[in-house]
Amino acid sequence: MIPEYKISIEIQPDSKQVDFVEKQLQEFNAGKIGDYQYTPLFLLLRDSEENVVGGLEGFIGLGWLHIGTLWIAEELQHFPVM
């Protein structure tokens, strides 16, 4: 008999379930490549009046930069490159 599976979309997942999935992936990766660390990264872009006009959220690990979220204010999205 073939086991049945289902995918559920979780709008507000239980933090314990999120932690479980993340831990399983870390354990799998550690088993393949050894122990490793990720460093969280959060950058803010501010204007001359200290207003936040952009931001980046992600992490650095295993020589990679992973960007989870990137936002730039609309008025800066077409800023000319000098």
Secondary structure topology:
Blueprint (H helix, E strand, L loop, with lengths): L14 H19 L4 E9 L5 E10 L2 E9 L10
Antiparallel strand pairs: 1-2, 2-3
Description:
The chain has 82 residues and is of the alpha+beta class. Helices cover 23% and strands 34% of the residues. The chain contains one helix and three strands, in the order αβββ. The chain has one helix spanning 15-33, and strands at 38-46, 52-61, 64-72. β1 (38-46) and β2 form a beta hairpin. The model has no long low-confidence stretch (mean pLDDT 92).
Strand content: 25-35%
Q: Tell me, what's the shape?
A: elongated
Task: Kindly state the percentage of residues in helix.
Answer: 10-25%
Radius of gyration: 19 Å
Helix count equals 1
Distance between the termini: 64 Å
Sheet bearing the most strands, described?
Answer: 3 strands, antiparallel
Structural class determined from secondary elements: alpha+beta
- Write down how many β-strands occur, each being a DSSP E stretch of 2 or more residues: 3
Mean pLDDT, as a whole number?
A: 92
Strand order of the largest sheet: 1-2-3
Low-confidence stretches: none
Helix and strand element order: HEEE
Keywords:
82 residues; alpha+beta; three-stranded antiparallel sheet; 1 helix; 3 strands; 23% helix
Question: What's this model, at a glance?
Answer:
With 82 residues, the protein is an alpha+beta fold.
